[in-house]
TrEMBL record:
InterPro entries: Pantoate_hydroxy_MeTrfase, Pyrv/PenolPyrv_kinase-like_dom, Pyrv_kinase-like_dom_sf. The lineage of its organism: Bacteria, Bacillati, Chloroflexota, Tepidiformia, Tepidiformales. Pathway: Cofactor biosynthesis; (R)-pantothenate biosynthesis; (R)-pantoate from 3-methyl-2-oxobutanoate: step 1/2. Mg(2+) binds at residues 45, 84, 116. It comes from Tepidiforma thermophila (strain KCTC 52669 / CGMCC 1.13589 / G233). Signal peptide: none annotated. GO terms for cellular component: cytoplasm. The keyword Metal-binding applies. Homodecamer; pentamer of dimers. This is 3-methyl-2-oxobutanoate hydroxymethyltransferase. GO terms for molecular function: 3-methyl-2-oxobutanoate hydroxymethyltransferase activity; magnesium ion binding; methyltransferase activity.
Amino acid sequence: MGRLSIHKLKEWKAQGRRFAMITAYDYPTARLVEQAGIPIILVGDSLGSVVLGYDSTVPVTMDDIVYHTRAVVRATEKAIVVADMPFMSYQADPNEAMRNAGRLLKEGGATAVKLEGGSHIVPLVRRMVEAGIPVMGHLGLTPQSVNQFGGHKVQGKTPAAAAKLIADARALEDAGAFAVVLETIPAPLARMVTERLAIPTIGIGAGPHCDAQVQVLHDMLGIYDDRRPLKHAKRYAVLGAAIRDAVRAYIEEVEGGAFPTAEHSFEMDEATLAELAQAG
Ligand SMILES: Nc1nc(=O)c2c([nH]1)NC[C@@H]1CN(c3ccc(C(=O)N[C@@H](CCC(=O)O)C(=O)O)cc3)CN21
Ligand SMILES: CC(C)C(=O)C(=O)O
Ligand SMILES: [Mg+2]
């Protein structure tokens, strides 16, 4: 049967059908999100924050993304798997960018790649699409530029910044991008972009009018229930507390001798045991 086609997404938009994308970085979580019916999985460079413990996405490498993409691809058969191109894997040199994008498809097994940025990456996006590499765009709060922005701040708030974002979105569509992520921008601006494009917009902190939404899995699942929740994220579960409680119960049972019992232990037959005892 194969994976969902990227071309379906434009049809879904035309039909007014909304959809969800979610991040996953490993085999068990990718399996679970596919079983739940997610059509698109993003192997986001947010893995730097949520699984590798960095305080931004800047340190994430090509090798990190390839490694995690392979695990996600092994776990799934239907979902479109999009791999984030990490910081400095496409900004320095277009030829290197092409080879890196190729690696994500050839070695990683991804269906598509995602790049942050607007008009300045449009020629590269066109070249990738012409080479057979499906590209998802990413505008607004592009976390790889956190040091340029001076923090994770709402983008596109001034008339000039909003106009630039709309122009960038159009340029990405013209270059052949199959969808565009809009991150942390005012909801009315995301609505305007959504109305003006034929390709789907995928929002995160971009309001309810986008064609699709994306969330970081670990935020949704409440893995970090001790941190202040990000405004754009909604906790659909509190797995942090559930994991901590389970590990506490395990520690207590080991320390108190309640685990393991016969139920989780293996027997030996009486004859072998007798022979062993005799041998001294
Ligand atoms: N766990 C996690 N979730 C994410 O969505 C995420 C990451 N990590 N790491 C990579 C980037 C960084 N992102 C971030 C990080 C912080 C804010 C933040 O602090 N937002 C403020 C609102 C910003 C404003 O008011 O201008 C907030 O209060 O949530 C937003 C996006 C999004 N991505
Ligand atoms: C938040 C999404 C859009 C992302 O780029 C990531 O998870 O890295
Ligand atoms: Mg990312």
